[in-house]
Write a structure and sequence with these properties.
The protein is mainly α. It has a domain at about 10-85: Multidrug-efflux Transporter Regulator, Chain: A, Domain 2 (Orthogonal Bundle), CATH 1.10.1660. The chain contains six helices and no strands.
């Protein structure tokens, strides 16, 4: 492994520290196949290398940008195959951007609903509250608006 990178092998705790990623999250990424299982030392410890470090940082940055695990898996498949084009990555990014715009629109509708509910409330000390009344209304799918 020494020939592969200038980073000595790392144990999971050090990998977590260097990337700011939780230990359990690293275990989960290994379990679902986003992170490859590292080789083990003679003592049985996992030996992560520079490639693991880079891959985990890629996954973490992608998550920070709101990419889903499946979107990240698709990006990694392109990278792992080595035959990706910038166009493919751009298309995936633009698709994700459109999803972000939809979520922003949903959040704006949610904000308006919450403001409307709050505007109905006087904030007085009476036990009757219009916000609670709205929340207890009929919750059939037709009556719930966001």
């Amino acid at each position: 492994m020494a020939g592969r990178s200038s980073v000595k092998s790392l144990q999971r705790a050090e990998l977590a520290k260097r990337t700011g990623c939780n230990l359990e999250t690293i275990r989960y990424y290994e379990k679902i196949g986003l992170m490859p299982e590292p080789p083990r030392t003679a003592g049985g410890y996992r030996a992560y290398d520079r490639e693991h470090l880079k891959r985990l940082a890629f996954i973490r940055r992608s998550r920070e940008l709101g990419f889903s695990l499946e979107e990240i898996r698709s990006l990694l498949r392109l990278v792992d195959g080595g035959d990706y084009t910038c166009s493919e990555v751009r298309d995936m990014t633009l698709e994700h951007c459109a999803d972000v715009r939809r979520k922003i629109a949903d959040l704006r509708r949610l904000e308006r609903s919450l403001k409307e509910m709050a505007a109905q409330c006087s904030g007085s000390t009476v036990p009757k509250c219009p916000i609670i009344d709205v929340l207890w209304r009929d919750t059939s799918p037709q009556s719930v608006r966001v």
